[in-house]
What does this fold into?
Amino acid sequence: MDFIVLHGGLSKREELQKHVEKYAELAFEEPTALDAVVKAVVFMEDDPLYNAGTGSNIRVDGSIQMDAAVMVPGDFGAVINIENVKNPVLVALDVMKKSPHMILAGDGAIEFARKLGHAPHNPITAAAVEKRKRTLERLRSGELPEYYNPSFFKEFLGDTVGAVAYINGEFAAAVSTGGTSLTLRGRVGDSPIPGSGIYCGDKGAVVATGIGEEIMRRTLAYRIYSQIGDRPLEEICREEIERFGDIPVGVIAVSENEAAAVSNMIMPHHIVRR
Ligand code: GLY
It folds into this structure.
């Protein structure tokens, strides 16, 4: 059986669910698992409702820096803190396919993107400006709860996007994010770190969403991947998510015969099988 699973981050906004469903169905028409996950993430990067590509969170200093990654068994590509591109996931794909490297960061990633024809694009939206303003106001007034507080996360942090697929015997994973809000310029989350926010190998593919620092502490994606085949995928994901307690987190995963989406907050997601 073939699968694709998409998630739109941790968010209770109902419109995100409808969009995820549409994008999952469309992306599943692609001929390969890699094409499908990249297409899915491009849809969500181009949709300003999501915290990825256009609509990304704005950092404390007012800049937008984005992370994205793609992974297939034995190969990986990522960009870290890239700016002013429309589709970070397509630059990550070019890093994997057209460079001798696996990860490019900052100015080097932007320069690489331009050389490969990724035109300048300003991902800022009025909603992201407003969100940053509200967050800063609350920070200044001393009202904000601590960074990990789930209620703070629900209002301000979520919406990283990701996709995993198993199509015609091949696995692939892709992820993209504007990072959690508010963060310092230069902060890197779990998404572009292989084994933390993304992992893909011969047994399956896993993508995470949530507070990157905590996901990295636990190398969540590889922990889940390494248990595939030992017991049901859903059970593996549920047990790993339970380890986070109240810290907001979610995962999507596929193996050769299972697909799972598990989170401890509302996570718009959709699984398509055929
Ligand atoms: N999970 C996305 C991030 O922490 O940047």
